[in-house]
Amino acid sequence: MSKKVSKIAILTSGGDAPGMNATIRAVVRTGVYLGLEVYGIMRGYSGMMEDDIFPMGSKTVANIIQRGGTILKSARCREFYTEEGRAQAYANLKKRGIDGLVVIGGDGSFTGAMKLQNEFGLPVIGLPGTIDKDLYGTDFTIGFDTACNTAVQAIDKIRDTADAHDRLFIVEVMGRHAGYIALHSGIATGAETILIPEAATNIEDVIASLSEKEKRKKLVNIIVVAEGDAFGGANEVAKIVRERLPNFDTKVSILGHIQRGGSPTCIDRLVASRMGYHAVEALIAGKSNVMVGIINNEIVYTPLEVAIREKDSIDENWLRIVKILAS
Amino acid sequence: MSKKVSKIAILTSGGDAPGMNATIRAVVRTGVYLGLEVYGIMRGYSGMMEDDIFPMGSKTVANIIQRGGTILKSARCREFYTEEGRAQAYANLKKRGIDGLVVIGGDGSFTGAMKLQNEFGLPVIGLPGTIDKDLYGTDFTIGFDTACNTAVQAIDKIRDTADAHDRLFIVEVMGRHAGYIALHSGIATGAETILIPEAATNIEDVIASLSEKEKRKKLVNIIVVAEGDAFGGANEVAKIVRERLPNFDTKVSILGHIQRGGSPTCIDRLVASRMGYHAVEALIAGKSNVMVGIINNEIVYTPLEVAIREKDSIDENWLRIVKILAS
Amino acid sequence: MSKKVSKIAILTSGGDAPGMNATIRAVVRTGVYLGLEVYGIMRGYSGMMEDDIFPMGSKTVANIIQRGGTILKSARCREFYTEEGRAQAYANLKKRGIDGLVVIGGDGSFTGAMKLQNEFGLPVIGLPGTIDKDLYGTDFTIGFDTACNTAVQAIDKIRDTADAHDRLFIVEVMGRHAGYIALHSGIATGAETILIPEAATNIEDVIASLSEKEKRKKLVNIIVVAEGDAFGGANEVAKIVRERLPNFDTKVSILGHIQRGGSPTCIDRLVASRMGYHAVEALIAGKSNVMVGIINNEIVYTPLEVAIREKDSIDENWLRIVKILAS
Amino acid sequence: MSKKVSKIAILTSGGDAPGMNATIRAVVRTGVYLGLEVYGIMRGYSGMMEDDIFPMGSKTVANIIQRGGTILKSARCREFYTEEGRAQAYANLKKRGIDGLVVIGGDGSFTGAMKLQNEFGLPVIGLPGTIDKDLYGTDFTIGFDTACNTAVQAIDKIRDTADAHDRLFIVEVMGRHAGYIALHSGIATGAETILIPEAATNIEDVIASLSEKEKRKKLVNIIVVAEGDAFGGANEVAKIVRERLPNFDTKVSILGHIQRGGSPTCIDRLVASRMGYHAVEALIAGKSNVMVGIINNEIVYTPLEVAIREKDSIDENWLRIVKILAS
Q1: Which residues of C touch D (CB under 8 A)?
Q2: Which of A228-237, C72-81, C206-215, D300-309 has the least mean pLDDT?
Q3: How confident is the model at residue A3 (pLDDT cuts 50, 70, 90)?
Q4: Which of B29, C155, C180, D297 is the most exposed place for a label (fewest CB within 10 A)?
């Protein structure tokens, strides 16, 4: 049976993602509307430990739905890995009477949240804020669609210059453990090949496919590589390609941190708004230790440990479509 | 039992939508890959009647995945409404041995396709190419996500100036029979109220809500109206608001045709690529008279007449969330 | 001989323009760096009258260089038109010891500034913040380049749909007294004709030129009209074109307020930064009643009354180039 | 005394730049309008040698003004460095009666053009097509403004994530011999320091300035480095900073080839249109061996060898303004 929640706090943690601000806005305004007091915690668990916590009202989140980054900032916090650290952090919540916590972030952030729940009984709700879409239990993570579009717009620009010079570009996008940004941006930009952690990279296949393109005088090609691909990043792939296929004019582009920033897309703002609303509803309904996700357009609650541990599989059909459409 | 398809044609019809070119690319390349001959038809049913039909190969669709508009152009065709007109149009397909047709468009386009199927036995597959998302049987239509993002970016700009001047803006977006662009762009831009054809507009509620905002000195507000809202467009709403709440500095902005153009978003390119691929697969599998849609991430085939006739309902939850988040 | 300035204030007034925030940042940081106290005034002359004035430091302008709108807001102020009103406003400056004022805005804003100088001896510097580029004495106004690019991107989208449907679009852009946005965006989007206040519109020429295009089957055409064109806006032009040339599929698009918002372009931020810096330098150097402008890449000071009264002429060469390039 | 020109050719060469297509359009349409025959040459001097030359009319350049890249493609051509190579290339022009050439590119491209003029008496006009703005004799080069805006938008995104994590980002932009992209994008994004080839980099100053920021707890900082800075690129700078100031969370981002692509800005399209027009006028007027530039809004003709050899100096004032505004 759930104790009634009356004061909740919110923090953002881990790598920032576009839409975090829209999520904060949704949590704060839903909380206020439903009669709760809402606190913001600066810099994730660091601010919790350092007591950098402040009350938030509807106006404090005005005009932020469209902003990249996070007004609550984010940080890694080593001290929070220790039990003493967490006790100190929790004490700062307790003294304010905070009896519910919403954590926006990825797997590291959720691990911290679970410890707060398990060690102190604090109800915690996780919201999937990660551009990589590397959490189980949701079709969307906050920031993923924006990161994909940023990558697509960058690769479109690269295609302009690739096309002007008949070049082969090997483009590295983010994704340490998940290849979704690579997959989606690669399909959307007509990539010749897409290399992702979820599928073993056969470099001989890559070479063979490029060789065939070379014979057909199709010299403009884009290969998209996820940074976490087991074979190695774009530079590794380029090294092999340059050795084996010296006739290609091969260039590397590593998109890097631009993928984290920018104004969120429409979908990321919708997902953020909906998840933020349901995080508060979930706390009020007595839920804890779960991540709010959206599957088949329905809100689904997945235990945090499952969200971290399990992994979505990449739809094999897509890899077939990639091959056909790049022909 | 299905006759084997060997030559297919593709056309775009009705209002153009971003992603049509990505769809054409997918249909052509999938067709060629699977051993079919593929023809392009210019200007929809007009080009079919005027015999403006030409063979397409993989290279003819190179470097178009990112382009707005449609390289096959689109047009209305009055003559096609007559049986003679359609007979003439079909004859142009027949003389080339074209035994399958992919139609990218909305309800009018699908009506034409059904007639070709019914009158001449031509296998036809419809792909939902409409920014309004006004077809039944799919979570996504080609162009919808781009139109929403275009609207969002425009309204973000309007919010800059609204905020600078403490103004109320009434913004009209496209959507004659469906309020999805209004709903999505309104949520994503933090609109105070969203007026759509699917829900009766109670102008007294609008006035009351604004009055309450006025009392709280919240003068910067955005109302998003779908052009097809039964109450009337942005100008109608503005007229009432100006009379009843003269203290608001009320401005109108009608976004208009910019919502049709532009480079498609990542999702629209994915949807276009996937649907284009499955349209060809469907023809080969002997399907006809159906629209390819995506529901809960699965490919679903809906009879064209159902896709036109039935209507998705708007999720009531969203309207509640809008109210809370704009507070 | 100049009295040493020690406390300056800044306000934004009139229609907002992208780059105003970058200008505020430059004025504040330059002032602080050079040892002055800097005050911000909210909502232009309204805030001056209502004593809505607050001290600004370097941190108060952090992370705003890229934002549209103006953090100081803008407003019209009727009471400021009276001598009593201005006396009250000036008293609020005087009691703080403010001995210099930077006004970012257009002609109305400069008129107010001149009165403060003339009536109370307050040193005032004007900075040209107007998207219309309707001030004399500068090659650039703050916001103009952004507005042009916003118009260009919108018209590019319109061209996508114009091209798909073989349509004639008549697009209205901002510019009540100056046709620069129309001229620049029209050239940049390959407009067939550009109608501006500075040149008499001969509708017969427009009709003749379109007729000739019709004969050559060039059906996709864009006409760009400044809102202040003497002939009338886009709707007026469309009415005539539809009557006289019914074969064109003529559509109207009025871009409206989106042209005021958005993140400023690189040039607008450079211009804003440079002008903001020189405004403070000018006050320190004892200048007053002048607008800071940039002509041929040099800083030029023009008396405010001249900046308002005189008018740049449009380079006739451009109109010839438009005609040739649209052929 | 000038011989009348009747057939001209156009090519793009060297690194591609946004606006090259707008330039091609202007040259072709102006040429046709003035009664000349116009030829396009594919892949720069390579296509000239390989006889890949084709007639261009007004329609061949329709709907390209907004496209990045170059429809004529670009390439390096080693064989053209030999006299035999050039003789062969010139023969391909001569046999068509081509008596004028417009070359869009940078210093390498102009060197080739001068040889054609000197060795064969072919009238040549150079147009400055380079994102780096590394040519003397013009305030604008085609593509520069777009590249600056692309860099600015990328750095804005990086600032979002820098701000969320209190990070120092060292961003490398293009510019091997000229620091203009670094200077302009750095000012426009509020960079703390800008390192360019034109000014000696004193790494001790950089460290001292960052140290001072660290003391003031200003941890979010952007340093923009031109790739051609004598000290080394972003990675070199980061190495030193990480050693000397380990408390900063220092990240590197190399923007790379995205700076070459994308739809040109309004200014780049204006510059391209104007220069393209004047290139043809110049050929008709009997000019040769000169680059068309724009200085103080006037068309200026600079001998190609001067345009290559001389160098603009960076305005020292800007470096002072950078320092003040980043404070």
Answers
A1: 25-26, 29-30, 32-33, 58, 63, 65-66, 139, 145, 148-149, 151-153, 156, 159, 163, 184-185, 187-190, 263, 265-267, 269-270, 273-274, 277, 296-297, 321, 324-325, 327
A2: C72-81
A3: low
A4: D297
**Token pair for D175:** 């510019």
Kindly write down the DSSP assignment for every residue of D294-312, as one continuous string.
EETTEEEEEEHHHHHH--P
Alpha carbon A160 to chain centroid, angstroms? 28
Look-up: residue for tokens 């993140």? C263
D55 to C51, D12, D32, D40, D284: CA distances (angstroms): 69, 15, 11, 6, 19
Pairing outcome for strands D221-226 and D193-195: parallel
Nearest CA in chain A to D156: A262
Asked whether the predicted pLDDT for residue C1 surpasses 50, the reply is: no
> Which residue's structure tokens are 């799919």?
B138
SS3 D200: coil
Least confident among A59-63, C128-132, D79-83 = D79-83
Q: Distances in Å between the alpha carbon of C196 and those of A127, B163, C15, C175, C314?
A: 53, 30, 20, 8, 10
Mean pLDDT of A9-28: 97
Q: Is the pLDDT of residue A162 over 90?
A: yes
Enumerate residues 6+ apart whose C-beta is below 8 A from A41.
A9, A10, A11, A47, A48, A52, A53, A72
Which H or E run includes C251? strand C250-254
The beta strands (E) that lie in A177-287 are given as 193-195, 221-226, 250-254
Q: Which helix (H) or strand (E) is A17 found in, with range?
A: none
Please state the rounded mean pLDDT for residues C167-174.
98
Residue D103 has pLDDT above 80, yes or no: yes
Could you give phi then psi for residue B45, rounded to 5 degrees?
-70, -20
Section D225-232 average pLDDT: 94
Judged against a pLDDT cut of 70, whether residue A254 lies above it is answered with yes
> Of all helices (H) and strands (E), which one includes residue D215?
helix D203-215
Residue A219: CB atoms within 10 A of its CB come to: 17
Residues 6+ apart with CB under 8 A from C229: C179, C182, C195, C196, C197, C201
Inter-chain touch D260–A160, beta carbons under 8 Å: yes
Catalytic residue among A132, A145, A229, A268: A132
Q: Which domains does chain C have, with CATH numbers?
A: 7-143+264-309 (3.40.50.450), 145-260 (3.40.50.460)
Instruction: Decide: residue C163, CB within 10 A, 0-12 exposed, 13-18 middle, 19+ buried.
Output: buried
CA pair distance D312, D290, nearest whole angstrom: 17
| pLDDT at position B1 | 43
Residues in chain C with CB shorter than 8 Å from the CB of B158 are 257-258, 261
Confidence of residue C100 (pLDDT cuts 50, 70, 90): very high
pLDDT at A316 over 90: no
Tokens for C281, please give them: 């330098």
pLDDT of residue A2: 52
B32, B148, B163: residue with CB nearest A266: B148
pLDDT at site D3: 65
Confidence of residue A207 (pLDDT cuts 50, 70, 90): very high
Contacts with A163 from chain B: Cβ below 8 Å: 63
Task: Identify the contact set of chain B against chain A, taking CB-CB distances under 8 A.
Answer: 25-26, 29-30, 32-33, 58, 63, 65-66, 139, 145, 148-149, 151-153, 156, 159, 163, 184-185, 187-190, 263, 265-267, 269-270, 273-274, 277, 296-297, 321, 324-325, 327
Question: Residue A10 pLDDT more than 90?
Answer: yes
**Secondary structure (DSSP) of D62-111:** TT-TT-SS-TT-----GGGGSHHHHHHHHHHHHTTT--EEEEEE-HHHHH
In degrees and rounded to multiples of 5, residue D209 shows phi and psi of -65, -40
